[in-house]
């Protein structure tokens, strides 16, 4: 199984880059992993919220493969604790899913087309976080799930 992190926006900012790289490297001991930063559409500042989501959605859908298992990070998604998330991830591996894509949408969310394409919707928290911080939290939680699956010491329950 390969894990892909897709995020709309700019490159990792320096204040989170080191942590993202650390957890991405650690995930690499368990699964192949990569980040794909999807650039903002050209002239994004001239588009209204709906047009921006639509353009971003077209970019996202153009790079997804039919067989990709898409997990959309969404504030209305299902919340799971770390053990539940580890079990969810293990179930996908047991189903022989080849590619899991975790998607962090743009500032205004994702288009309805992307929402419909998602195989699962996951909420990290009831709290709202900056997109850059969500990247770090996501990478850490995926790493934590890997250690829970292997019954390693990183996670203390």
Q: Tell me what the CATH architecture is.
A: 3-Layer(aba) Sandwich
Radius of gyration: 15 Å
Largest beta sheet: strand ordering: 2-1-4-3-5
Tally of structural domains: 1
Percent helix range: 40-55%
Number of strands: 5
Shape descriptor reads globular
Q: Which H/E pattern describes the elements?
A: EHEHEHEHEH
* CATH topology description: Alpha/beta knot
Major pleated sheet: 5 strands, parallel
CATH superfamily: SPOUT methyltransferase, trefoil knot domain
Helix and strand composition category: alpha/beta
Unreliable residue stretches = none
Regarding quaternary structure, what we see is single chain
Percent of residues in beta strands? 15-25%
Summed up, the helix count is 5
Cα separation of the termini: 26 Å
CATH class: Alpha Beta
Question: If you had to describe this structure to a student in words, what would you say it looks like?
Answer:
By secondary structure, the chain is α/β, with parallel strands linked by helices. The chain has one domain: SPOUT methyltransferase, trefoil knot domain (Alpha/beta knot, 3-Layer(aba) Sandwich). It contains five helices and five strands; from the N terminus they run βαβαβαβαβα. The protein has helices at 14-27, 49-63, 82-94, 112-117, 131-149; strands at 2-8, 32-38, 69-79, 99-104, 120-123. The protein has a five-stranded parallel beta sheet. Helix 3 packs across helix 5. The longest helix is centred in the C-terminal third of the chain and has 19 residues, at 131-149. The protein is globular. 27% of the residues are buried.
